[in-house]
Amino acid sequence: MNFAWSLIWRGLFAVLFGCLALFMSGVTVAVLMIWFGAFVLVSGIFATMASFQAAREHTQWGFLLFNGILGIVVGVLTLASPSQMAVALVWVLGVWALMAGIFEIVAAVTSPWVVGNKGLLAFVGIISILFGVMIIANPLAGAISIVWLMGAYALLVGFTLIVLGFKLKQSA
Questions:
Q1: Domain range spanning residue 158?
Q2: pLDDT (0 to 100) of residue 57
Q3: What is the distance between the alpha carbons of residues 143 and 163, in angstroms, rounded to a whole number?
Q4: Chain-centroid distance, C-alpha 155
């Protein structure tokens, strides 16, 4: 699977998660945690796959790999113990989004595989950082607010990744 398709699949899964979070926000926290765990796990798998593709093409791959491993670890931990992870949801979500944003910006700045589209990947990184800061700054926000923020974040990032993936497919 090439890098463009991994972005498209990450984006599609993010859009699915965003729709579920926004339109079914009355679900229990445990169900939300399972959705979140699946979303982060799949995103981590595709970021890791993209890092392997970048390594084969001799481009910057380290930040993609670290971002992928981080997503896989957070996803597995969340799926293994959703109720315990619900207690740590605010901090885990905020730190994950903040770190993912930093790695996405670094990848946009340093990686040649997004030539002409660096702005879109940097935009995903900025959105991720802003989302992480908002969550960390207000950890006592209501559960429904967090669900809506997660949904909006996932939709915005998902659609942006899909657009970036198709732009990269067209330029290949």
A1: 3-171
A2: 81
A3: 30
A4: 10
What residues have CB less than 8 Å from 88, skipping those under 6 apart? none
CATH number, domain containing residue 9: 1.25.40
- Rounded to whole angstroms, how far apart are CA atoms 146 and 137? 12
Cα–Cα distance measured from residue 58 to residue 16, given in angstroms and rounded to the nearest whole number? 32
| Collapsed DSSP state (helix, strand, coil) of residue 25 | coil
Q: Where are the alpha helices (DSSP H) in 24-117?
A: 29-56, 62-80, 82-87, 89-110
Are residues 41 and 89 in contact, defined by beta-carbon separation less than 8 angstroms?
Answer: no
Number of structural domains, the chain? 1
The rounded distance, in Å, linking the Cα atoms of 130 and 43 is 19
| 105 neighbors 122 (Cβ within 8 angstroms) | yes
Residue 7 CA to residue 169 CA, distance in Å, equals 10
| pTM for this model (two decimals) | 0.54
pLDDT (tens digit, 9 = 90+) per residue, 11-32? 898 898 888 888 876 665 667 7
Residues belonging to the chain: 172
What are the structure tokens assigned to 117, written together?
């589209």
pLDDT in tens, 86-142: 767 777 788 988 999 999 899 888 877 767 788 888 898 999 999 888 878 876 665
